[in-house]
Specification:
Blueprint: H1 3-24, H2 28-34, H3 44-57, E1 61-65, H4 71-83, E2 86-91, H5 94-106, E3 113-117, H6 120-123, E4 131-136, H7 143-150, E5 154-162, H8 172-182, E6 187-192, E7 198-203
Parallel strand pairs: 1-2, 1-4, 2-3, 4-5
Antiparallel strand pairs: 5-7, 6-7
Helix pairs in contact: 3-4
Length: 204
């Protein structure tokens, strides 16, 4: 990664450290009430793995469900630039998308990202596909519904990575529903204890 990207990731990681201290003092319900304030990143290990998977698979059409403040988008967009691809990223919050856009511009990656603002369940039916790589990292109760909408739009051999399969513990019931559902479809799938736990699935 070049210096501009590394500088932006360093700024993100400084914010992560600050917010982690605040989150440690919150009960689950307090956290849920304030969650839109926080970055809630996939973390550097998962980010690096996402970047590597996109580069290794070589699929140029990348979809991210849950831009949030753009941390994972940087990793995906950097990989997209390397292989001549493009990231379509969706989020509901205007302020988060703007923050992400500013940081991707600072990283020199703005030309490799298409921001879509709105409810994923409304936007997904309008997207043409086919997609080669998908990151699921929005509210966990939407994972199964989004998977069902995405499934017909996936290329053969496409990869889906779903975050937060193990942590936070309050999200586990929805994570387990997602893991059951993806195993009902044409996927080879594995749970990896990286970061907050990720399910990596490949369409047959």
């Amino acid at each position: 990664m070049d210096e501009a990207v590394l500088r932006v990731l360093k700024d993100y990681e400084a914010r992560i450290a600050r917010e982690s201290e605040v989150q440690q003092g919150l009960e689950w319900q307090q956290f849920v009430a304030r969650r839109d304030e926080f970055l809630l990143p996939v973390g550097p290990q998962t980010g690096a793995l996402l970047n590597w998977l996109v580069r290794g698979a070589g699929g140029k059409s990348i979809l991210e469900l849950g831009t949030s403040y753009g941390y994972s988008t940087v990793y995906l967009a950097e990989a997209a630039r390397a292989i001549g691809g493009k990231v379509v990223t969706l989020d509901l919050a205007t302020n988060k998308a703007q923050y992400a856009r500013e940081h991707l511009t600072r990283a020199g990656l703005q030309d490799f990202v298409d921001f879509q603002l709105g409810n994923a369940l409304d936007i997904l039916p309008r997207l043409a596909g086919p997609f080669d790589f998908v990151l699921l990292d929005l509210w966990k109760d939407l994972y199964v519904a989004c998977l069902d909408l995405i499934y017909p739009k996936l290329a053969r051999g496409a990869l889906i990575v779903a975050d937060n399969m193990l942590y936070p513990e309050g999200a586990r019931p929805d994570a387990e529903k997602y893991r059951r559902r993806i195993r009902e479809l044409e996927f080879d799938s594995v749970l990896l204890p990286i970061g907050s736990g990720i399910e990596v699935s490949r369409r047959r």
